[in-house]
Amino acid sequence: MKGLDLALNFFKEYGEPMLSAQFPEALKYIAVGLVGSGSECYGYDDEISRDHDFEPAFCIFIPEEDIIDRKVEFELERAYAKLPKEYCGFKRSPLNPVGGNRHGVIRMGDFYAAKTGSRDGQLSVYDWFNIPEHSLLEATNGEVFLDNYGLFTGIREKLSYYPDDIRLKKIAGNLLLMGQAGQYNYNRLILRNDTAAAQLAVTEFVKSAMNVVFLLNRRYMPYYKWSFCALRKLPILSQLSLDFEFLISSGNDDELARQKSQTIENVCQKITAELDAQGIVQLATTEMEQMAYAVNDKITDNEIRNLNILYGV
Length: 313
What we know:
Elements: H1 3-22, H2 24-27, E1 31-34, E2 59-62, H3 70-81, E3 86-87, E4 90-91, E5 104-107, H4 108-116, H5 125-130, H6 133-140, E6 143-147, H7 151-158, H8 164-191, H9 195-216, H10 227-231, H11 240-249, H12 254-277, H13 288-297, H14 302-306
Parallel strand pairs: 2-5
Antiparallel strand pairs: 1-2, 1-6, 3-4
């Protein structure tokens, strides 16, 4: 059973009846779900991931104290702690009395501030650039099972994805890095027989190209250990995962280096075609440096457009 299913079933069977019976007035302001850190919040959990932090549990998100005060918060915490300690063969972990828990009662503002620095989802241009992408994903992943008040979901929607100009700036910067690392530096390092540095270059190319693919899908890229898992499930350019895996897992002898150079060009061609298909930019070239500056020129906000092209990476 996946963690999200386990959490939803546990909530439906025990959590929802508890909240309805004991907290009918507070319930209209509460959001419940499983969101945040942990592979189960992405749906990536498996038998291996169950060796830590896997349990029948959910989050009860409550608004600020002017709506739900500390007394009710404490009562909610006690009621949550009294729910069954074992469910479907999985044991619950004890809650930390000083806070910092992934589950249980959490102030909405505290949750979003921990992920983004903002309690209400209002971010400046520079916030969007500086918040780690995986943190934005942790603020918006998982599932919300209940939100009658709509506040938690409203903040979640504000953070759902980058504004268009931020997205374009990030695409431009990563295209430039793709060109530098893959189309330029890799081949030069192979000519110098510096195969270690060549492999670093191809790895940098793959990292930047993966970022572009996620940006073209309008999806946040997760923490690196889940990046390939997420990439394979994307609706656009997910087939590039095979090219990326080949590039970072193969050697750099003469024949492999030739194949890798061709694979790099194939990746660039497919990304160029998708930039055209999305109406972002159309150029008769697969040179990523030229594409990068063309994308940057599409940014409508003068301040963002005039930032260094690598500002978003």
